[in-house]
Automatic annotation (TrEMBL):
Listed Pfam families: Abhydrolase_6
InterPro entries: AB_hydrolase_1, AB_hydrolase_fold
Record-given protein name: AB hydrolase-1 domain-containing protein
UniProt cross-references to PANTHER family, sorted A to Z: ALPHA_BETA-HYDROLASES SUPERFAMILY PROTEIN, HYDROLASE, ALPHA/BETA FOLD FAMILY PROTEIN, EXPRESSED-RELATED
Span of domain AB hydrolase-1: 72-340
Length: 346
């Protein structure tokens, strides 16, 4: 039976509208479930209110801040939170008189999402948190894995507030202009194909990222798919210990939405930065503090070649390459205590 032209037009319009509607729903992430809102999870952590109205949740550990000799802000990585446990002995913490300030980065845990989140905003969140809790004019920062890009931000935008900084198994952006093409291409090629594609989408077409992470046709990020091939042997041993004694608070990490926590973290970190690491200037020209990179030689998530190169080009960054360590190096007590001692005692 032949359709009349008068019938074809409405059908075509209906199909087009339906396709556009499906596309819109597929690309648009769901709204976040804000902590404390009628439809959101309850607020279960102490929080401070930032100048823009957002809240940051935090946790204090170590010696009381009033008695501390060294105050360290610890910045968690991808898929983590303020409830991470650093395996430093109580004896070491007491000996060095260390106060730790952990916090949930925007969208994670009990901290409000930040629709305007950027590399730059991370530094000012750290600064405002430190000021609200009155930990002093200068403090130390430790950034773990993806939590290292906020440390780079601190080095760029608030270097005058830092007493020292450690970047542990630090994230790298393969599109940093400072990286030679052969190095970035080689390092990028070492990643699993599904991770390469995920990072490309985050960098070039971030508006597609929610769809990419939600679709079922192609494999997306390996770490979220539970692909254990990305971990070294030492990492697997640490993960086994974690599985036997899970840390508290893990169920809250994505409670406000996977887009506002995990997805936005990747889009910001792998997007176009406001600065290049080579633009950074030594914040301690008189050796009143130090900056460190700690890198596991066996790390299969962050290729050591890139961080080795950065430290060679920025000689004021002290580079430690741990031969038998993987990506989770700071969660081995001997490495964690070495990171702490080096940071505060140099």
């Amino acid at each position: 039976m032949n359709m009349k032209p008068a019938m074809i037009a409405p059908i075509a319009v209906a199909l087009t509208v339906g396709l556009l509607g499906w596309t819109y729903r597929a690309l648009k992430p769901p709204p976040p479930k804000i902590c404390g809102s009628p439809d959101g999870p309850p607020v279960t952590s102490p929080r401070i209110k930032l100048s823009d109205g957002r809240h940051l949740a935090y946790r204090e550990a170590g010696v009381p801040r009033e008695e501390a000799k060294y105050k360290i802000v610890v910045i968690h990585g991808f898929g983590s939170s303020k409830d991470l446990n650093l395996p430093a002995s109580e004896e070491l913490v007491e000996e060095l008189r260390i106060y730790f300030l952990f916090f949930d980065r925007s969208g994670y845990g009990d901290s409000d999402p930040n629709p305007s989140r950027s590399v730059k905003s991370e530094a000012y969140d750290v600064q405002e948190l430190a000021d609200k809790l009155q930990i002093g004019s200068k403090f130390y920062v430790i950034g773990i894995s993806m939590g290292a890009y906020p440390v780079y931000s601190c080095l760029k935008y608030i270097p005058h507030r830092l007493a020292g900084a450690s970047l542990v198994a630090p994230f790298v952006n393969y599109w940093w202009p400072c990286l030679p093409a052969n190095l970035s291409n080689d390092a990028f090629s070492r990643l699993l194909a599904q991770d390469q594609w995920s990072f490309r989408v985050a960098h070039y077409t971030p508006w597609l990222f929610y769809w990419w992470m939600s679709q079922k046709w192609f494999p997306s990020l390996s770490i979220l798919a539970g692909n254990m091939a990305i971990f070294s042997q030492s990492d697997l041993e640490i993960l086994k210990k974690w599985s036997e004694a899970p840390s508290v608070g893990q169920e809250k990490i994505q409670q406000q939405g996977v887009y506002e926590s995990l997805h936005r973290d990747i889009m910001v970190s792998y997007g176009k930065w406001e600065f290049d690491p080579m633009d950074l200037i030594n914040p301690f020209p008189n050796n009143e503090g130090s900056v460190y990179i700690w890198q596991g030689y066996e790390d299969r998530i962050i290729p050591f070649q890139v961080n080795r190169y950065l430290s060679e080009k920025l000689p004021w960054i002290h580079y430690h390459e741990v031969p038998d360590a993987g990506h989770l190096l700071i969660f081995e007590s001997k490495n964690c205590e070495a990171v702490l001692r080096e940071l505060v005692q140099r």
